[in-house]
Design goal:
single chain, 113 residues, alpha+beta, three-stranded antiparallel beta sheet, 5 helices, 3 strands, globular
């Protein structure tokens, strides 16, 4: 597999639907996030002060149904501000994002086998 293809296919993305927060059809409004890099995840997990989970989430927003007042695609910063303005929406996005990342299943074998 070509590296460019592996990067495109290997980075997990998830779309979280938010329409119910705006009294719309559930799938009308959405945000799409990619999985964090190993560095981003490490920095957020250990909260070393370098990057909070909010900063990681903001960097991982790669698309949304939202536009700015001029009809242009909303920036990830603006989408994050919208999400963070509501505790329930923030919780839904954070939980949905974390739960959607496919982690490998334990096989019961040690790495020495």
């Amino acid at each position: 597999m070509k590296l460019s293809e592996a990067i495109e296919k290997g980075i997990f993305r998830t779309k979280i639907y938010l329409g119910e927060f705006f009294r719309e059809d559930k799938q009308k409004e959405w945000v799409q996030l990619r999985e964090p890099t190993a560095t981003e995840a490490h920095e957020a997990y250990y909260a070393s002060g370098e990057m909070s989970i909010d900063e990681v989430m903001k960097k991982c927003i790669i698309g949304s149904s939202f536009t700015d007042d001029d009809g242009e695609e909303a920036s990830s910063d603006d989408v994050f501000k919208l999400i963070a303005a509501s505790a329930s929406m923030y919780t839904k996005v954070l939980t949905g994002w974390q739960q959607s990342i496919p982690l490998p299943e334990e096989t019961g074998q040690s790495s020495a086998e």
